[in-house]
Write a structure and sequence with these properties.
By secondary structure, the protein is mainly alpha-helical. It has two helices and two strands. It is elongated and about 45 Å long.
Amino acid sequence: MQNIDVFEKNAAYITYCIVNGLVMEQPFVNSEIGLINNQNHSVRNIEKYPDYKEDVKELNVTLRKFVETGR
């Protein structure tokens, strides 16, 4: 980020904003639909973002299949 002129002065802040949604600080909980969490801005936070519930179900089914079969 520091090598891009327009971002140079705010590189740390912009990097934080990008990484904020990737770093999980809240624990995952196994629920009836699979793994969820309560972290703000996480698509797995179905309590705060109920519109993501079906997506989380599909993601969990896909991850389970991958773990069980390796593909």
